Amino acid sequence: MNQDELVEIAIEVDGEAAEAVVELFNRCNGGDWVEDSAAGEASGGGAVLESTGYDDLGNPLAGEYRMVVKTYLKPGPRGRRIQRKIEEGLWHLRLLYPMPEPVARIVKEEDWAHAWKRHYKPMRIGRRVLLTPAWEKPEPLPDDLVVRLEPGMAFGTGLHPTTRLCVAALEEWIQPGDSFLDVGTGSGVLAIVAAKLGARPVWATDIDPLAIRAASENALRNGIALAPEILHIQQGSIPAGQPGRFQVVAANILAEVLVGLFDGTYDTVSLAEPLAPGGRLILSGILEEKSEIVLSAAARYGLKEVERTQEADWVALVVRRENAE
Ligand code: SAH
Predict the structure, then answer these.
(1) 123-321 topology per CATH
(2) What is the residue with the minimal CA distance to atom 3 of ligand 1?
(3) Which of 135, 259, 285, 316 could cross-link 297 (Cys pair, CB 3.0–4.6 Å)?
(4) Which pTM was predicted?
(5) Which residue has the higher pLDDT, 188 or 17?
(6) Where do the structural domains in the chain lie, given as residue ranges?
């Protein structure tokens, strides 16, 4: 076996077992890959979550889904040790969940690094947003807003339901000239869509420096200038000193994080602060059963639900600040 080859271990499971297998693979072998074969049919591209470091949002969907969970090992004694640990772990899990034997095969390292790209094709969202991987040549309709993305290590390819729900909400709520804040911008996908819909200025933040880099590069790739009155990207969470500044705010992070953002757990500023009177806050990354904790956090800051959309188990909530508090 050559140095540029890897052992791929793949196992097809349902949603419940997937969670346990992902946990096992992560524990034994760091990052994991999750392929969602059901979404492959539904969205015509499949959802490979390039989730290294993002397995929070990349958690497998529960329910009817059949998924393939994969992990990759370097050849050599260490790889063999990990493989044995995985096989033992799977043996134990099989006592709890019925599942097939894992399938091991040898792949080129190159294929592994680019595997997710195979599933990442131009994708239409909402009425006219066409999300396109940077290396594809899409065929847009005359009215389409083409958004080119090279996500790199940052989350936000548009493959994940939570991103798609946000893009659809932006199409609905953003009017040209609205100011927009994207908290947790990842690849910059929502900030770029908002800028293309005419939002000015757009501010985007992320605590992850890799996301800041990916978002800046993607903005330029889409012809959006990094200038204070157009798009401003900064590392961090909720910008301080901007009360009531933004007509639309979006945060696609997990429910627990959203609650923390409202209550100022991570910052001195609440997620509610930068929202303008009458403005809309789009909250995503919320598993259905967690929507109540997010809504009650929003209510503590005078924000009421105006819309709820759902894809698979993921919910996006739009809440509104009343003009008179
Ligand atoms: N907005 C993109 C990416 C969402 S992933 C999309 O809709 O697809 C969530 C992002 O939030 C990640 O890039 C992560 O680094 C960032 N993040 C996590 N906690 C955060 C916090 N407290 N403040 C700001 N960003 C945060």
Answers:
(1) Rossmann fold (3.40.50)
(2) 186
(3) 259
(4) 0.71
(5) 188
(6) 5-114, 123-321
